[in-house]
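TODO from last week: model 4-hydroxy-tetrahydrodipicolinate reductase.
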Amino acid sequence: MSKLRVAVIGAKGRIGSEAVKAVEAAEDMELVAALGRGDQLETLVEAGAQVAVELTNPDAVMGNLEFCVRNGIHGVVGTTGWSDERLAQLRSWLDASPRTGVLIAPNFSIGAVLTMQFAQQAARFFESVEVVELHHPNKADAPSGTAARTAQLIADAREKAGCAPAPDATATALDGARGADVAGVPVHSVRLRGLLAHQEVLLGGEGETLTIRHDSLHHSSFMPGILLGARRVVTTPGLTMGLENFLDLA
Ligand SMILES: NC(=O)C1=CN([C@@H]2O[C@H](COP(=O)(O)OP(=O)(O)OC[C@H]3O[C@@H](n4cnc5c(N)ncnc54)[C@H](OP(=O)(O)O)[C@@H]3O)[C@@H](O)[C@H]2O)C=CC1
Ligand SMILES: O=C(O)C1=N[C@H](C(=O)O)C[C@H](O)C1
């Protein structure tokens, strides 16, 4: 069987350099391009890439995806910074290239995907819920894409269940003391040397609390998800939001 022809964009970065090694080590894949800043996207076409793994930054991701989708190259995207406007723009490119698929995965690690699922499941049973994400200090964005997605999933689940807003009688607060408001859920961002990527979802009810915590201790935690995404996206046209769609979580 012919190997899946995979390229990595952002190949010299923290996660991109791990992705290059993971694709090289995968028996069913061939690494056909590894692009860093300043490299020409046309290389992807010349190399015959079927899938581009996009791991750059929010400033670069849209231009890279526009090129890929217009050229029928499927995308596996870990880069953060997604807004409704950006998603609408991506969908319009995909509409014009109906056989092309893009997976956006706020987090590729199985533990983080499960954290999001568990948080969504638990959200309606507790009066209070807050998210704390903790990352290395070189991270460009806050809150993390994972925390933003987690908060949105929690908010959707609570709205569907008709939950009241979480109680909070704070009368005065320093700016930022209660975190960022993501769809009504407070999200707190910690940046600390020594950390990689961690998240806690804190849920509180009468006389009890539940904490769901996930820790990525090495970038290797993201690799099985990236490889699964590359294998599955080629037969999944359109936009797929979240790796959970490619996992059998029933
Ligand atoms: N979904 C997930 O599971 C994960 C997602 N991420 C996300 O992935 C992204 C990258 O993270 P991280 O590796 O830590 O960041 P880094 O800054 O270490 O890596 C990004 C790399 O992309 C390069 N780059 C920037 N612009 C371009 C471009 N136009 N073309 C090619 N390369 C470019 C950068 O070059 P230069 O250094 O010159 O700027 C850098 O080498 C972030 O958005 C992060 O949040 C990270 C881990 C897991
Ligand atoms: O920048 C990182 O490191 C990470 N980014 C992603 C995010 O913003 O959620 C995924 C993971 O948290 C690591």
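Done. The helical segments are 14-25, 42-46, 61-70, 84-95, 110-122, 145-160, 223-233.
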